[in-house]
Amino acid sequence: xxxxxxxxxxxxxxxxxxxxxxTEKDIDLxxxxxxxxxxxxxxxxxxxxxxxxxxxxxxLGTEVMESLTPGQQVVKxxxxxxxxxxxxxxxxxKFNSNGITYFMMCGLQGAGKTTACGKLAKKLKKEGxxxxxxxxxVYRPAAIKQLMVVGESxxxxxxxxxxxxxxxKIAKEAMNHAMKQGNDxxxxxTAGRLHIDDDLMDELVEIKETLxxxxxxxxxxxxxxxxAVKVAETFNSYLDITGVILTKVDGDARGGAALSIRRxxxxxxxxxxVGEKMDQLETFHPDRMASRILGMxxxxxxxxxxxxxxxxxxxxELQKKLKTQDFNLDDxxxxxxxxxxxxxxxxxxxxxxxxxxxxxxxxLKIDEKELVYTEAIIQSMTKKERMNPSIINGSRxxxxxxxSGTSVQRVNSLLKQYEEMKKMMxxxxxxxxxxxxxxxGGMGGFKMPF
Length: 450
Hints:
Elements: H1 3-17, H2 24-40, H3 45-59, H4 62-65, H5 70-86, E1 101-107, H6 113-126, E2 131-136, H7 143-154, E3 158-159, H8 167-181, E4 185-190, H9 198-211, E5 215-221, H10 226-239, E6 243-247, H11 256-265, E7 269-273, E8 281-283, H12 286-293, H13 299-309, H14 312-323, H15 329-340, H16 345-350, H17 370-379, H18 383-387, H19 394-404, H20 408-431
Parallel strand pairs: 1-4, 1-5, 2-3, 2-4, 5-6, 6-7
Antiparallel strand pairs: 7-8
């Protein structure tokens, strides 16, 4: 999502960055480019108009015109206003502190609602809660079966009463079941439709009145652009939704929905569903998304992913090894395996400041199958070689290549990667000084480029 918009915005702002002084004409030209880029990304016209007006007014003020780096100040303003459009700060889920919390999931058919129910259940379970999934979609063929498969895959129980009973009755019984079984969160998977109709809405309103949910979350397909915003307006008028989960953001989405929803319906985006795996539900941070769009990277998200993926005990041991220059090939393999748990490496690299945008990464081939060769090569080494790679001479390299079914070139390449990773891990360690969890913390040497 945002790939084309990101490239165009960065190009428009790049023209301002190198100038020692900006004129009103410079600002006008940049605003014209930014306006076209936002409209092409399917951002709501009124949102674009207000955004351009605010950015232009601020850019013509003294904070830019009297600055020694006026271009950088305009970038700063664009970043702040993009963040403002999407909503200030993370919007957290509301929980009932005195009993069971009810989340009602709604949306059109095909938006990925049932999968998102499973992702949310997995996230809540990881946080120590005891969720229950309730199958209230009695219309779509195999919807109940799909939810049961999803529930089993994330280890969360599913309450269902078949497809012959009304969804309102099922919702009521799910409440009773949760009380008896000690569940503290109930996630209601409601029925979707191919289009909005009065019957669907009346049924959802009835479920809402029965459950009195703490959150009514609308699932929207990011790839539908402005249509998603219209759907949000309609659902909100009936249900007064509390938030949005944008799905399919890993597809060919232009990003218009993400930049329009908050302003149009005044409801926050709470999560992004970023892939098909059940752990691919990300908390939406407007400021971080603005940074990604402008190619500033997203260091905080990298750190969070690292904290989730890396074993804390191993990370602390690694810190000690780095301090004593004792980082060996066994450690190297362990780090590669844990980095793989952070998600696709090209997505991680896009979050690194200065590397934002796929175009900058085009020359970089990231083949995760290489890990198989890496494991084979390291496992073909003696313990002594793994502990002290500097002893691996020409004849040893030939033996290792033969033992792993690879080539001497691959062995050489791996040893070079090991040295590079050793340097990188030292930087990570320096970046996280003073943070307790595994050395991945703080902004460290990373600074916003303005």
